[in-house]
Amino acid sequence: MNVTAEDNLKQVIDEAAAGLNVDKRSFLEKSYGATYNSDQLIKRALENIDEASPDWTFVASRLYLNTLYERAAANRGYEPGCRYGDFYQLMKILTEKGIYTDQLLEKYTLQEIDYFGSIIEPERDLLFNYLGLYTLATRYLATDHEKNMYELPQERWMIIAMHLMQDEDVNRRRDYVAEAYWALSNLYMTVATPTLTNAGKTHGQLSSCFIDTVDDSLQSIYDSNTDIAKLSKNGGGIGVYMGKIRGRGSSIKGYKNMSSGVVPWIKQLNNTAVSVDQLGTRKGAIAVYLDVWHSDIEAFLDLKLNNGDERQRAHDIFTGVSLPDYFMEQVEKRGDWYLFDPHEVRQVMGYSLEDYFDEERGAGSWRKRYLECVASDALTKRVVPAIDIMKRIMKSQLESGTPFMFYRDEVNRQNNNSHQGMIYCSNLCTEITQNQSPTEFLEEFSEADGTIVKKYKPGDYVVCNLSSINLGRAEPENVLERLIPIQVRMLDNVIDINTLPLKQTQLTNRKYRAIGLGTFGWHHLLAKKNIRWESNEAVDYADQLYEKVAYLTIKASMELSREKGSYPAFAGSKWQTGRYFTDKGYRDEKWHKLKEDVAVHGIRNGYLMAVAPNSSTSMIAGSTASIDPVFKPFYFEEKKDFKIAVTAPELDYNTYDVYRRSAYILDQRWSVKQNAARQKHVDQSISFNIYVPNTIKASVLLALHLQAWRDGLKTTYYVRSTANDVEECEWCES
Prior knowledge:
Blueprint: H1 3-17, H2 24-31, H3 38-47, H4 56-76, H5 87-96, H6 103-107, H7 110-118, H8 130-139, H9 153-164, H10 173-185, E1 189-191, H11 193-198, E2 209-213, H12 218-233, E3 237-241, H13 263-275, E4 285-291, H14 297-301, E5 318-323, H15 325-332, E6 336-339, H16 342-349, H17 365-375, E7 382-385, H18 386-400, E8 404-407, H19 408-413, E9 440-446, E10 452-457, E11 462-464, E12 466-470, H20 471-474, H21 480-497, H22 503-512, E13 516-520, H23 522-529, H24 536-564, H25 574-577, H26 579-584, H27 589-601, H28 615-620, E14 634-638, E15 643-647, H29 656-660, H30 668-679, E16 690-692, H31 698-710, E17 715-716, E18 719-721
Parallel strand pairs: 2-3, 3-4, 4-5, 5-8, 12-13, 16-18
Antiparallel strand pairs: 1-12, 2-11, 6-7, 8-17, 9-10, 14-15
Helix pairs in contact: 1-2, 1-4, 3-4, 4-8, 9-10, 10-21, 12-13, 21-24, 24-27, 24-30
């Protein structure tokens, strides 16, 4: 290698290692003699990552950034030393290529665009670790149709900010775009994956998840399947409530024992999930929920098992079970449980059990009607021990991770819009709880010109609009008061500019203007604060922090309502009556003032907070997923031709002790306590995983579920069990 090449290599490595705690001399010496190749240098930097030297990920990231800058510069025609080229020219090129929507160039002036280009901060690219940058670059940055690199990380943040603020008042939107860019580029928050992918582009919607309610008719079943296919095609995850559909052996048009029950329809959805993939990137993702009193519940709980009759299996959908308090009480006392056909209940009793809930713990409308059904001689029913149903639930969970648990009474008691409807189930990731109802087919007729028209009465078809605070960065830097107002504005704007493929979703979206502001980086934050996971200090901190986030979120939505008006269903809601605040026990002066302000000025969004899994976006932001503990302080992420070593964020001698008690070692009873503390302040729900060894005693897993229910959790997500025994798992033996 000649002197010039050595000098160049030294300069590249010096720049990549600047300010980082790495042994760059050794790295440089090992790199001499090898072909000077960016990919080789990146690979070598990644090989140096371990628990003692986590900063090598940033060396690799900076080397990778140079590659991205060179590719973008070559395709856009500017010098790579500039890092970023002309922002307006980028927009013009990608609009002409049909990648960017032409709305941005139409709505923003050249002066505005030049200003936005001038405030882009290339130095913020240095915040990315390698895995985060690699994920962003390979999945989300805009390319042309031949996958040539054009857009760079800071430009993606700016395009998202511009897209979400495009319809704001022209006198103020420049400031809003700048503020949204500040929030995104500092990695204080992330937007949902569909927004990250599709904002500013010609195709694709911005919302993450949807929830459909299927009525007990052939028309509704097939209409729902078509609707779900459309949503899946556009990248949405879907929750489906099928508790209204008659059970196996039910009557059809008065003929007894004719119905095949819910399983064949679920298998159809399974085929839809596989065949209608999400823009060619992954299979469709569908979760089906059923009530635990439904006559088909046992076959439903076996759908994901790896043995038995394959004709009764659906391996590509996810399952969720809707559980009333009374069932959990019967499990606890080892009592009986009765199964009913919902169609027969409607025919004989004149009501639907699923349309009621217990208004208080231990008493209410649902159990009154359930016990009426139990006592009725006119109803066909089957009795099983409640604990046997629970055993089937837990067996499926340990084998497949599902069903998810949906505690329907608690959800509906806490529903801020119970004046407008009922919540039957959650979504694919169990964090959304909003009013639902089936879309009703009314009639079909032909017009004079021969056109055939179908008329429907639209139901509440739930839409989830999500974004999340990076607690590991935002809270230590004390930016929540500044961050949350712009984040709520961004989420609210998604509702108006979104292009949703179904009319029902558009109508529901505007009726409730629901958003889901969430968080990730909880374990990261605990490590930085040196707070042990298994401690009352962590539980108390969750309580205080999520109360603060709730207060700032409600306040931001109230201020937005003062500016733009309340959501249409506000009148009669718990927001309007003030019951939300009294039910939560918020009594200090600031909450009292906020309660009065909401009564006077309204609130912009009928549903406000939801904590999603955030696995991809937390990876991009270099933090820990959602409210979950890390799997291990140090692990390998598998890629095509090498393994990427990954450490917990900001791993050092100060944080290691908090991180080393990782997911499968931690006492999950403390996780439930933490989640109960935060659930108190989250008006929707939380994607809450339970981590257990595969050798866990059934009694211990049962105790966890009972604790979650008793402590007021609304939902639980996967039961994630290990393939092998876990060392140090003292708690799971107790």
